[in-house]
Each structure stands twice: as C-alpha cells, then as structure tokens.
Amino acid sequence: MSLLPLDDAPEALRSPVPAPASPVSPASPATPTTLVRLRRALALLPLLLIGAWAAVDWRTVYDGTARLGSADPWWLLLALFFSCLGWLSAPCIRQGALPERLPAGLLIASQFAAGYANHVLPASIGAHAVTLRFLQGRGIPLARATASLALYSAVKPIAKTLVLLVFLVAFPDLLLTGELVPDRRTSLLIAGAVTLALAGTALLVTTVRPLRRPLLDALRCALTDVRLLHTRPARILALWGGAAVAPLIQSSVIFAVGAALGLSLSWVQVAFAFLAASTAMGAVPAPGGIGPVDAAVVFAMVALGAPVDLSATAVIGYRVLTVWLPLLPGALVLSALVQRKVL
Length: 343
What we know:
Elements (H helix, E strand, L loop, with lengths): L10 H4 L15 H27 L1 H11 L4 H14 L2 H8 L7 H15 L6 H13 L4 H29 L13 H24 L1 H21 L3 H29 L5 H15 L10 H12 L4 H17 L2 H13 L4
C-alpha cells in the first residue's frame, strides 16, 4: 500500500465519484407538447362542430333568412336588441346562485361560450360543463360549483312556472287556455315520465356508491348556500329576478319577429304561448330545446289564432337571432377561453 499523503494523489483519484445521472423519462419532454396539442384541438372543436351542424341543418337557416328578408327592419332590429339583452340573463342567474362574487367580464364571456355549448349538446350538458370548468378555474370548490348548477337548473323552471301562473291569473279572459291544456292521455304521459325520471335518479344514487358521496356533499352544500343566498337581497334579485325575466325577454324576441312579419297576436299572447310551450316541452333532452319547444310554440300560437305559416316563420326568425347569429361568436369565445386557460 502506498503511504503517499492524500494531497499528492492524482487529481483523478481525489475527485469525488459522480452521482449516477437520474434517468430521463422519455415522456417528460413530450408531455407539454401533448397538452398544447390537446388544448389546440379543444379550441378548434367548437368550430368543427358548428361546421357540421351548419351542413346538416342549413335548410332551416336558409328558409328563415329568406322569409325574414321581406320583414320590417325596425322590428327586426328591436328583436336583435332583445336577443342581445337575453345574453345577460344567464350571467345574472349564475351570479345569483353563488355566494362568491365572480368577475363580471369573464362571467359574461363564459356564459356566452356556454350558450354555444348548450346548442351543441342536449339537456344543457354543454352549458353546465363549460360553467363548471369556469367556476373551478375561479377557485370555487367542486361541491359548491355543482350545487350552484343544481340551483340554477331548479330555479329557472320554478320561476317560469310562477310567471305562467301570473299570466293565467292576470289575463283569464284574453288567453284561450282551453285549447292549450293537454288531454288526459298527454297528462298521464308527462306524469309518468317525471315519475320514472325521479325514480331512476333515486335508484342510481342508492345503488352506485361512487356517486352517493359527491351527490350528498353537493346536496349539503346546496342547502347551506340556499340559506345563505336568501339572506342577501342582491343575490335574491339576481337569481329569481333573472330567472323570471329571461323567458319574458325570449318572448319579446318572438313577438318582435312576428310583428315584423305582420303577426296579429299581442305581446301577452305571444308571451303566454312561449311560457306554456317551453314549460311543457323544456324538459325534453334536445340541444337548446330546439325542435320540441319550437313545435310547441307554433302550436300554441296557432291555438291563439295566428296563421301557421307566420307562426312558423316567427319561430324560425327567433332561432336565427338567438341560436345561429351568436353561434359563431360563441364558438370563437369558447376557443379563446380554452386557449387562455380560463376553462
């Protein structure tokens, strides 16, 4: 053995043994690229969906636009105003369903994008999915965000039904309600469908254990938030006032389009026709209620004395202004929110 001092040892022997290099995962550099590609794909998905929908349902837009070409432009401008006013009702109700204050600009943008998603997927699935992502991005816990969606979905039909009852009480002689009341068979079908839906939901909650705890947590949070929200006058006004005004604004769009075409029904009649039709058919799982609600509104307006062709054209014009006109801007806003990681 050498007795040389350590300082005289060669440099290679005195250098510390290098630590083994950590293995580089081959997936690490690819992960950010994959996320970027996925985000870009999600941003382009709304535009692809709108193109597919336009290719399938182009005839409706063409017919409605052709007939509206000869309508009174001032009434159509008023209908466009009411359509734009309706875009503010959903953010108002959403804010009323949450104790936390949300940024107004982003809330309006998210609901504008959610309106596009609502017309792509049935039963408001798209709108709720966009809103849920937005609320979680704002730091709202999942239970509270889910509870706000449930409260939003429950308040809207309740408020609409209350407004419909007010119309029935305030205008008993003006509205021909006898022709709009469903017969016994239809009433039984509606009652049976509601009963089956409630029973299926209860069975699902009781048998599927992974769903039980999140739903119970959301229910507890919802009850707590309902009590809290109804102690704040501003939230009560936003929640219930927005839910009550929203169908009246939609009715005003139909009335203005009908007036542009020469429809003889009054605003009260058109509003009642829309309230009755959307209340009866609003639960049908169609994208944005398009189809069943449209047919029911036309039927209600015809029952109140309007011609079939004018009623159908008024509803088509209503859909052009409330669905097709904001569809492309809504898709672009949704893509922009996805790109900026707001959703």
